[in-house]
Amino acid sequence: FQIAIEGLPFEVLSEQNLKSIDLNFRSESTWGDKLLSAVEDLGDGNWLHTIYKESDQKVLALAKTSWTGN
Fold this sequence. Notes:
Elements: H1 2-5, H2 10-15, E1 16-25, E2 35-43, E3 46-53, E4 59-69
Antiparallel strand pairs: 1-4, 2-3, 3-4
């Protein structure tokens, strides 16, 4: 889960609480694969997270998180 939230703005992580997460694993990786994470703001405290392999851009996991204020 750590890699999924790394791309969130500092303000979200420091000022909001995780309300929910939906996680969907699509594929596996192996030791040594370089993984990347992308985050998209969906609005209203919702974020879409994509984790993929650098070598072939294959999506390994998708997550949607919802955050609420402190």
